[in-house]
TrEMBL record:
Pfam families: Flavodoxin_NdrI
Domain Flavodoxin-like positions: 4-154
Source species of the chain: Oenococcus sicerae
Highest taxon listed in the record's lineage: Bacteria
MF GO annotations: FMN binding; oxidoreductase activity, acting on NAD(P)H
InterPro entries per UniProt: Flavodoxin/NO_synth (IPR008254), Flavoprotein-like_sf (IPR029039), RNR_NrdI (IPR004465)
Protein name: Class Ib ribonucleoside-diphosphate reductase assembly flavoprotein NrdI
Signal sequence interval, chain numbering: none
Length: 154
């Protein structure tokens, strides 16, 4: 069975809840139609010891910002910095395949802005976005995007 890592950060529990549902959905898919893919959801926080990533992974990041009302330079990331620091640590970002994003559509142009910034900074694709803790269809779409984007030789 091939493990596929998804690094994530969860501030209010929405991303953690989503990841639990994703892991369960992947297990369910393996029982119904074995594809030998296991999702390993790894929460990154300020209390996690940084390590050099040894295998390819995906990232799931929520958006928490302060300052301004648009997407200009006055906006600063808050609460999600641990994940960005982890990606920068020993160039972990080089093992990143792609980025998933959660956010709140009420924030208009700031919806999933953190993930868009990660995509630009690290040169990786934004693969899928969903609102808050997502719905069942989001879990299914997220999983499908993982399957579609795993390198064939990984």
């Amino acid at each position: 069975m091939k493990k596929v890592r998804v690094l994530y950060i969860s501030i209010e529990g929405n991303s953690r809840n989503f990841m639990k549902r994703l892991v369960a959905y992947a297990k369910e898919q393996n029982h119904q139609n074995p594809n030998n893919i296991e999702i390993e959801a790894v929460e990154i926080s300020d209390s996690v010891d940084f390590a050099k990533e040894q295998q390819l992974f995906f990232v799931n990041v929520p958006t928490y910002l302060e300052g301004g009302t648009g997407d200009g330079p006055e906006i600063h990331e808050i609460f999600t910095n641990a994940l960005g620091d982890y990606l920068d640590y020993q160039d972990n970002y080089k093992k990143m395949i792609g980025i998933f994003a959660s956010g709140n559509r009420n924030f208009n142009v700031q919806f999933v802005l953190t993930a868009k910034r990660y995509a630009a900074k690290y040169g990786k694709p934004l693969l899928y976005s969903y609102e808050l803790s997502g719905i069942k269809q989001d879990v299914e779409n997220f999983y499908a995007k993982i399957i579609d984007n795993i390198p064939k030789d990984a």
